[in-house]
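Shipment paperwork, digital attachment
Item: protein structure file
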Amino acid sequence: MSYRLALGLLLMIANLPSHAASGQASPGHAASGFVEHEVAVDGQTYRYQVFVPAGWTAGRSWPVVLFLHGIGERGSDNQKPMRQGLPRWLKEHGANFPAVVVIPQAPEERYWNGEVEQAAMQALQASIETYHGDRQRIYLTGLSMGGYGSWQLAIDHPDIFAAAAIVCGGVLPPREGAKLRVEGVPADTEPYAWVAAHIGKLPVWIFHGSADVIVPPQGSRAMHAALEARHAEVRYTEFPGIKHDSWTPAYATAELWPWMFGHRLAAPVTDDK
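Attachment content:
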């Protein structure tokens, strides 16, 4: 190879766009797998991963799933959320998964509220735009702390999600002294009925382990009952003898994804006058 040709190749590589150099999907191309991104909220950077399905193309719109991790995956490395729940399931079984999945990471000592919630929603919106998400097919799921966060986002953004799968989450602190809870529930009201009333018409499938002592299943049972009392579309699966790791059987439930992707928001009404 001549010196001039080698130099030209080096210059071409050096000037590649950052998304191409890192394996990220560029508009119109069908890169697949996990892609790293970041957003900024009030000057703080929040990193997140996006699972891009095989065969992704800008020529069509795609379902988008927002996944919220548990308390043990907090940090800033953008890697811990990949080891549990839906991201791990995607690594092992997601070759034919038909949706984009957004995987934000909450910082240490933070929960899915306030600025962290804003960062998750900003990551979702950016992913919808970048990966041609279908706004009628946006879905929500999370486990443990992310289950609490899923209830939080469902309350705060009732018209965004077409369906939700909430795994070993809750509404109230799971034990005395715990800070984890859904924010905004009035102190003088019945919390489960209040949450059920504030998530709108969101269809929900709740999962929990019967032997969970970290987040006891009573909260999920109470949310199921509150939603049933409102004649909402709700399913509840309690795994006998399973402790906190109910996410492994939950995300392996064969009926989950057809159920979830079978829902879509109604098309917005347009004024043709």
